[in-house]
Amino acid sequence: MTDHLQLHDDRLFPAESATRQIARELYASVADLPVISPHGHTDPSWFADNAPFPDPTELLIIPDHYVFRMLYSQGVSLESLGIGTTPRERSPQESRRIWTLFAKHYHLFRGTPSRMWLDYVFEKVFGLQVVLTASTAGQYYDHIDDCLKSEEFRPRALFERFNIELLATTESPLDPLASHDAIQESGWSGRVISAYRPDPVVDPEFDGFTANVGQLGELSGENTATWSGYLRALANRRAYFSKRGATSTDHGHATAQTADLSTSECQALLDKALKQQMTAQEAELFRAQILTEMAAMSLDDGLVMQLHPGSFRNHNRSVFEQFGRDKGADIPVRTEYVRALKPLLDKFGNRADFTLILFTLDESTYSRELAPLAGHYPCLRLGPAWWFHDSPEGMRRFRELTTETAGLYNTVGFNDDTRAFTSIPARHDVARRMDAAFLARLVVEHRIQEAEAHELIRSLTYDLVKSAYKL
Amino acid sequence: MTDHLQLHDDRLFPAESATRQIARELYASVADLPVISPHGHTDPSWFADNAPFPDPTELLIIPDHYVFRMLYSQGVSLESLGIGTTPRERSPQESRRIWTLFAKHYHLFRGTPSRMWLDYVFEKVFGLQVVLTASTAGQYYDHIDDCLKSEEFRPRALFERFNIELLATTESPLDPLASHDAIQESGWSGRVISAYRPDPVVDPEFDGFTANVGQLGELSGENTATWSGYLRALANRRAYFSKRGATSTDHGHATAQTADLSTSECQALLDKALKQQMTAQEAELFRAQILTEMAAMSLDDGLVMQLHPGSFRNHNRSVFEQFGRDKGADIPVRTEYVRALKPLLDKFGNRADFTLILFTLDESTYSRELAPLAGHYPCLRLGPAWWFHDSPEGMRRFRELTTETAGLYNTVGFNDDTRAFTSIPARHDVARRMDAAFLARLVVEHRIQEAEAHELIRSLTYDLVKSAYKL
Amino acid sequence: MTDHLQLHDDRLFPAESATRQIARELYASVADLPVISPHGHTDPSWFADNAPFPDPTELLIIPDHYVFRMLYSQGVSLESLGIGTTPRERSPQESRRIWTLFAKHYHLFRGTPSRMWLDYVFEKVFGLQVVLTASTAGQYYDHIDDCLKSEEFRPRALFERFNIELLATTESPLDPLASHDAIQESGWSGRVISAYRPDPVVDPEFDGFTANVGQLGELSGENTATWSGYLRALANRRAYFSKRGATSTDHGHATAQTADLSTSECQALLDKALKQQMTAQEAELFRAQILTEMAAMSLDDGLVMQLHPGSFRNHNRSVFEQFGRDKGADIPVRTEYVRALKPLLDKFGNRADFTLILFTLDESTYSRELAPLAGHYPCLRLGPAWWFHDSPEGMRRFRELTTETAGLYNTVGFNDDTRAFTSIPARHDVARRMDAAFLARLVVEHRIQEAEAHELIRSLTYDLVKSAYKL
Question: The domain spanning residue B200 has which CATH number?
Fold first, then answer.
């Protein structure tokens, strides 16, 4: 049996009819606004090369840890899903087998955002009209595969079709940004910029840290063995990114800890870091100091700072050893902001010309720490519901738990934060719908006027992200 | 004045009419499915002996710390409620006086699940038709007392009337399971199995630990003074339980800490434990190691492992000294899972042939830790909302906070976890209604199809518990 | 353009029509009940002197850190808002300029409780009929300023118009309560009492602690250098407050830590405290001991004890240095109750003649710690949603997260906790509406009867606060 696939126009809107009607109108007013994606993990070479995506499995399963972690959690091996292989290592038959295996387990996603994103991609991007099941898997594979061979499904064509006004990728300071240069030189009108993510050269526990810092020195022409040279090198690469259009930095630290140490303490820490003779506590202190230094540089060069703390990366030891990073085994941990950020805030917290956007994986901090902080400090803004919480219920909780204390104007619109390119319109669509639903409730409970809700939905969709990220 | 008692057919369903209609249909499809109770604390001797329950007070008040803690919190003394007395020590007049005292305070339960469970028991189990108040207390007492004297209210008759397909009790490894044997030998068709709860022989801080371990040695014929003998003894008793139908173990540790120590470290800890010369930290480490050992044994004997951490037991010192354990003074504390479980998960986390069911009293871990863990590790499943959270709002939060990341198939249906036998159908009824309400919202917001919701409600009610607990 | 300002009669009620209808009826039954405000920070001299409030800016902006922190978070300087100035230091033009600046940013409050409170004050207290915007700012200023010059807007007249049955202020033990005496002697019928807030004389880290304790000795005629004399001095001032009508004490500690030390330990701590030679840990222990001593005194003198822990005060260093305390920079931190309160509860927890009302800024403790504690210990009650959580969503979460475990009778009605006098009726109105909305949902989901909801709404509005605070 093949069921019809048709996303309902009212999806995600509250059932109560007055609320739904208002949600519909609010959503309609922003449904066609361009997508601004200021933070994500797509590959800029897609847009530089504009080569076709290899096949459905490579496009939709292999890079999407949201997808394969769920199958893995139910006993499907990563090997059987082709994780760790490249398209070249897989025969078309193998890719098709993996797709069918995925289809067979598609019911596992019921009630999850992955299901909503995937159905959107299937119907709205690829025009499929039946539900994905084991029996339609072959039809799906063929159809998507055919699409991918056509011009309209090349990365740039999709970028345009998705109505993307701007897309930010994320790169290491060591990255020459060749793809970004190539995009710019190509004359294509699509705006793809980078964000400066210095983890490999500022986290002493990052694989290859010492070599990375050496390379940073070479790239920048600075002596990165001295603290001042090291800072100049970091600033030099920020300028390199900024010149190519980047407007932000991004920091994926384990915690939100910041510090304000003396230069001699910093030099001593750097010495230990480069010799890889650091305790875990010293490495934490090093990273803490880096955040404060990055804030100082932001005041100089105007880059907006993003902090994404609280993920225990690569929690599954054997999966990490066999398959590497980003395999669905990053697990959130309790995160503290109030004491952790104080050193940085004592220094720069009152500067309205500095922007630090805070994210969290620990929802207990929304109302307790993040909203009160953002509702006071001029430099702080709240990033949207992140990662596991980038979902209908997660977005609802974010709004309900932060709005009353931080207001809506201390938030920065939506981030899709994805490496799954075709899911970008799906994710922004969910965010617009959930914001419409939230505002509709405020209207129908007479907490704001309907005209205000119309102003707000546009701000949440478009204006706030542009101003917060200086786009 | 006596108000009519009549549970509404739509209780717990959302008010919005489309949602309510779908919830009704979903609920109707599972309302008559048999009850599977894989985890609880009823007394197997009830079913072995099949003796009448003594009186209303003994049945419904004395053993139910949910009930008397609320009265106690409002200044009713435990003595006046007969806590700590046996039916033989109480005259019928005294039991009736206690019942009336309870009735006089029945309004305290407004808005609590106890109120819903009790009203269900009154109406559906005992056929009462007026609301319990001080003035109907006598009528209640007489009616229930009469019922209890009849054959239809003997434990086995109720078990059958409650449509219980399977009921698991919880026993210590030192328990000979005589009642379970008696039930089996009696030829009665009711299926009552045990679960292996080793706290008395694996927690060095448990009352009588050293003597308990000695007894364990005798029962198993092993030398429990050596680590290897101690482990063999624990495994031996697991086999004893398993042979009598048990399919699971249960662990009520203070934290979720696990460990992976060398044999010599384990022997040293055991030596100290048996001499009762342990620090609190060493006792914690001992218990942590035990969890990893239990996981190893589960891989051998197939018993499903349950972890119930995070309760500060017997928080009220003087109540504990005067009245003992389980007197409503167990208070949840903050609980950490991500770092705590890593030693065990590093060892066995990727084994799909091992099942570890996690419970929590700390709802802040649902979306932050438990759902991400269960949405990745093949061995992990999420137990239902537990204890204080086994309530309409608690169940709703459980679904809203875990589904999007862990999905529904990494959960295991409902546990009633009760020692209040007559409340079992009431509790399962609440769970079925709340799942119906949750799924109805997903349908009406067009997040899943109605046909899917019908499949899911059956899975959540019946299929998942059978497969997760290997029943 | 000037929009009409008109608070909707159904504001804050759920949209679903059956629920809304019940909420309306419940609310209507308590809308006109007198306001009891057992905990707040208004200035008793207002009612003693009954002088006109100086101007709109001084009344509504300068003292309200809810208001100016939001503007500050969006880059409006505190200087430009007149923070730190007195009416005498500001020209009328300056006050008007500040008001206009505030009006220009009024959209920032969309979705916040401040917006609801302010609109209520504008419409219901001052009779304004257009929405506040930059263009109506002048009209607003003139109108409110005119009102303030009239007799009907003097503090006592407003007190009466607000239908306040009782208002508690908060004072230090060093305060002579001259305003309270003046009110009593004036023959005015308004009941304004104090609450005993000993932070300045019991927190070794409070500014001027040693001098404060010296002054305490003088006021009480006790030798506060000895532990016993110090305790007698504290008790002496409690009696002074009690004699003037106070029925409660209030404790604003950083944590909920309590202790039960020997007298010699206490004396040693006091010695260090008075010499200001304490570590942070010793200061914490001192405060912990004080809480237990205060509980002991409550058993003697019957004062109800309130604990408000978990605020990191004056988090913004430079704002504190320039502008002082209470400038919107107090940020909640994670708070632990279960282990922290045990020493005190071990001693007095089972005394039904003692009342300790617990508040929190850490909502993760509602269901995990506070409701289980209050649902067991006879001395404990739960204060209402506090500070940042004194908002529609915050109140809803408080009820949803505490009711099932603690019941409704272990709560104590509403506290407005405000220094913004004119917002008092607005805040109580929000609380009554949110309780009506919560109870209406219970009714419509058939969890309680409608008649019960009518009893409950009155208890939550009026009865419980009177009994809990012994008013």
Answer: 3.20.20.140
Give a yes or no: residue B220 inside a domain: yes
What range defines the domain where residue A88 resides? 52-153
Amino acid sitting at position C190: G
One domain, residues A263 and A167: yes
Inter-residue contact C382 to C406 (CB < 8 Å) = yes
A140 and A165 share a domain? no
The pTM score is 0.98
Instruction: Tell me whether A68 touches chain B (CB under 8 Å).
Output: no
Residue A199 lies in a domain: yes
Residues A83 and A123 in one domain: yes
Question: E strands along B180-294, which residues?
Answer: 192-193, 248-251
Least Cα separation, residue C176 to chain A (angstroms): 35
Note whether B333 contacts A: Cβ–Cβ < 8 A: no
CB of A113 within 8 Å of a chain B CB? The answer is yes
In this structure, the answer to whether residues A437 and A300 fall within a common structural domain is yes
Nearest to B410 among A12, A73, A330 (CB): A73
Q: Residue C89 maps to which CATH number?
A: 1.10.2020.10
Residues A168 and A118 in one domain: no
Which residue of chain A comes nearest to C131, CA vs CA? A449
- Tell me how close the Cα of C21 comes to any Cα of chain B, in angstroms: 12
Average pLDDT, chain A: 97
Query: Is some CB atom of chain B closer than 8 A to the CB atom of A363?
Result: yes
Residues of A in contact with C78 (CB under 8 A): none
Give yes or no: residues B275 and B423 share one domain: yes
Percent of residues, chain A, with pLDDT higher than 70: 100
Scanning C4-43 for CB atoms below 8 A from A yields: 7-8, 10-16
Q: Which chains touch C (3 or more CB pairs under 8 A)?
A: A, B
Predicted confidence (pLDDT) at residue B282 exceeds the cutoff of 70:
yes
Domain end position, chosen among A110, A131, A153? A153
Q: Does A461 reside within a domain?
A: yes
| Chain A residue closest in CA terms to B351 | A75
Q: Tell me how far CA of residue B344 lies from CA of A334, B256, B260, B348, B379, in angstroms.
A: 20, 10, 7, 6, 11
In this structure, the answer to whether residues B186 and B289 fall within a common structural domain is: yes
Number of domains in chain C: 2
B46 part of a folded domain? no
Per-residue tens of pLDDT for chain C, all 471 residues: 578 999 999 999 999 999 999 999 999 999 999 999 999 999 999 999 999 999 999 999 998 999 999 999 999 999 999 998 888 899 999 999 999 999 999 999 999 999 999 999 999 999 999 999 999 999 999 999 999 999 999 999 999 999 999 999 999 999 999 999 999 999 999 999 999 999 999 999 999 999 999 999 999 999 999 999 999 999 999 999 999 999 999 999 999 999 999 999 999 999 999 999 999 999 999 999 999 999 999 999 999 999 999 999 999 999 999 999 999 999 999 999 999 999 999 999 999 999 999 999 999 999 999 999 999 999 999 999 999 999 999 999 999 999 999 999 999 999 999 999 999 999 999 999 999 999 999 999 999 999 999 999 999 999 999 999 999
pLDDT digits (tens, 9 = 90+) for B71-83: 999 999 999 999 9
- The helix/strand/coil state of B200 is helix
